[in-house]
Amino acid sequence: MNFQVTVLKILVSYPDGFAVMADLKRDMAILATSGRDWAERTKRLAARGPDLDIFSQALVERLNGGWRITEKGRAVLELMEARPSEAEPERQASDAEPSPPAAAARLPASTRLGRDQRRQRRRATRERARAKAS
Predict the structure, then answer these.
(1) What is the signed CA dihedral for 25, 104, 121, 16, rounded to 10 degrees?
(2) 17-30 tens-digit pLDDT
(3) In what ranges is there compositional bias, type Low complexity (predicted)?
(4) Do residues 7 and 54 touch, judged by C-beta distance below 8 A?
């Protein structure tokens, strides 16, 4: 598994591109144990960006106990994921059906489910704190 590619893929899956370290570590653990498919996929992506260094290239920034993907990081990841389409005419690409939401397409279902559950728990915790404060 390529660590730097995995970090980019995890961060881009969050709505604002920011994840606290605990979430990032948990998502990394899930992907690291998800099987050879993920490891092979990240190796293929890493081969498309052999000199990738997420911090020195300003693809990821550290803030407030977590990491956030930058616009440059999103662009580099898109380039790495782009597939050459020499066999397809450009017209077909524009006529194609829209793909599923980017965040949902990038991580396995188990990770998306876990993220949704975390959001629900955070929301419930905030609501309890607000109710307690009033």
Answers:
(1) 70
(2) 999 999 999 999 99
(3) 102-112
(4) yes
* 3-83+102-133 CATH: 1.10.10
Give the DSSP H or E segment for 102: helix 102-106
**CA pseudo-torsion sign 59, 16, 8, 85:** negative
The three-class DSSP label of residue 108 is coil
Task: Please give the single-letter amino acid code of residue 44.
Answer: R
CA-wise closest residue to 77 among 10, 18, 32: 10
Residue recorded with tokens 């728990």: 121
DSSP structure string for 16-70: TSEEEHHHHHHHHHHHHTS-HHHHHHHHHHHHHSTT--TTTTTSEEEETTEEEE-
Better-predicted residue by pLDDT, 68 or 91: 68
Q: Give the residue extent of every domain in the chain.
A: 3-83+102-133
Instruction: Give the whole-angstrom CA distance, residue 121 versus residue 134.
Output: 20
Phi then psi for 67, rounded to 5 degrees? -125, 145
